[in-house]
Amino acid sequence: MRILSPAKINLFLQITGKRPDGYHDLVSLMYCVGLYDTVSLTFGVKETSVSCCHPDVPEDETNLAFAAAALFLNTLNINQGVKISIEKQIPVAAGLGGGSSNAAAVFLELNRHYGYPFSPDKLISMGLSIGADVPFFIFRKPAIVSGIGDKLKAYQGLESFKILLVFPGFSISTAKVYKNLNLGLTNCKKKLKSLLLNEQSFDPRCHLCNDLESTAASMYPGIFKAKEALLRHGALGALMSGSGSTVFGLFSDSDTAFKANRALAENDKWQLYLVNMITKETEDKPEQGLS
Ligand code: ATP
Question: What letters, b where the CB count within 10 A reaches 16 and e where it falls short, cover 71-108?
Fold first, then answer.
């Protein structure tokens, strides 16, 4: 069974506080985009295993897809494993949520394979124990995500843009960005006061904001360089996704996006992906599960 596992971007990412347990509360507007890993599952094996030919992706129980399978099968006391094979297209540790997406793909497919033993809400809470972005990928719709990634509200208020992703050729550790973050210097709250309540609709021309961007860019100036290039070549707005390193530009027409893609391709350190925003749920899900 082969499953497509999409990347995400954060059009808005406000850090609202830090909890005593070290987790950060946030409010984020998240969309899946048309850049995919492929996750293949083989059933009927004794032990769970994972393989991936990307050098930075672990092939043991620390792989998020492996962790998802182990949690799912253990919770149901299933005495069988699943063989997981991942073909990576999504840059790793790049703010595009690849590992979380792979984990969500495993949860969704195991749930389907075993006859939907878990409700969507139960899958989402299991997903949260694997990673903060996993619930969003299980939800699989454009969403305003809040709390520590556990509160999800479907969002429909945005037209679809062409997106040019610029992976600047280096990865960033999420933990390192959060460690260097100074909450007193974050500013997305001022840009958009009430996205969560939908009182103010999101306008990407002026509301794009990421509280992690200036911290990440001060450590990795290549982020500003990619952002500036996207704006110079006609993007309506540009922003770092998640904790970086990928920067995306939004384009209202394909022609300008193609031209920007061609111009930015001159920098041979950058990997470029011209993609669509995924505005609809692509996978059938049951409304009800048993637990
Ligand atoms: P995050 O913000 O959660 O750190 P990210 O989107 O920036 O995520 P990922 O591509 O998910 O980045 O990788 C983050 C880390 O997770 C990497 O260090 C990688 O080695 C590890 N990892 C574990 N499982 C996977 C997986 N299936 N795919 C990619 N990375 C994985």
Answer: bbbeeeeeeebbbbbbebebbbbbbbbbbbbbbbbbbb
